[in-house]
Amino acid sequence: QVRLVESGGGLVQPGGSLKLSCTASGFTFSNYYMHWYRQVPGQERALIATISPAGGSTTYVDSVKGRFTISRDNALDTMYLQMNNLRPTDTAVYYCKFGSTWGQGTQVTVSS
Fold first, then answer.
1. What is the four-CA torsion angle of 39, 52, 103, 17, rounded to 10 degrees?
2. pLDDT tens string 47-60
């Protein structure tokens, strides 16, 4: 059974940082691309970052380029999203995704 569990969200001031984690189980994590999405209330989930199986290739949506870094540790079956210089517009529920499986999401709130 494929399972994804996100953690690391919280409340942070503008300009602050957070690091999200996504721990996977039920499949061979190191063989697959993984993705981070986010969803603002009233809007659809939007893809923000993707990482290749070995971690050597990453892509980002323009709004997070230069501020967010996606990474993975295949020995731990875990993917990360380092978020720096956070803005109020980054406030959302953040999800990791593999295939058709979503994690439960973790809330990130950027506010002073």
1. -60
2. 999 999 999 999 99
